[in-house]
Write a structure and sequence with these properties.
Elements: E1 6-7, E2 10-14, H1 15-28, E3 36-42, E4 47-51, H2 62-72, E5 78-85, E6 90-92, H3 96-105, E7 110-115, E8 118-123, H4 124-127
Parallel strand pairs: 5-7
Antiparallel strand pairs: 1-2, 3-4, 3-5, 5-6, 7-8
């Protein structure tokens, strides 16, 4: 398992993950179609990155694209996720749909957010208080 570079004030903040998403946003996000990058860490230490596919019909967010990319690489157990905007916008929070999907697929995943200029990490369940639990209705 890889040694993870953590924030000195909060070991739940995976700095390598933030750097991977930032690099992807800075390097590959171009134009209006790809404006946000996401990075996720699998339990085996792998980092997977992806870009959103913006479209006026509701193209998928970077967080959803990275879930598919991870699955395509056999990474089904994910520990943490972060999204970073293009143009130096920094860490961006997941939208409501992404929060719900993350909660349904990975109820224990840590989401890295920005609190001003400082990152913070929270369990996805804290982003959806009193959430609808999809599995309860299957």
């Amino acid at each position: 398992m890889a040694v993870v570079d953590h924030h000195p004030d909060d070991p739940r903040i995976d700095l390598e993950l933030v750097r991977a998403a930032t690099h992807t946003a800075e390097t590959y996000a171009r134009g209006d179609n790809h404006t946000v990058a996401a990075a996720t860490r699998a339990k085996d230490g792998r980092i997977v990155t992806a870009l959103n596919a913006y479209h006026f019909t509701g193209g998928p967010c970077a967080e959803l694209v990275v879930l598919g990319a991870a699955a395509a690489q056999g990474a089904y157990e994910l520990e943490a996720i972060v999204a970073v905007g293009d143009g130096g916008r920094g860490i961006v929070p997941p939208c409501g749909r992404c929060r719900q999907v993350l909660f349904d697929y990975f109820p224990d995943i840590t989401v890295i957010l920005a609190a001003g200029s400082r990152p913070r990490a929270v369990p996805v369940s804290q982003l959806l208080p009193e959430t609808y639990v999809w599995a309860d209705h299957q």
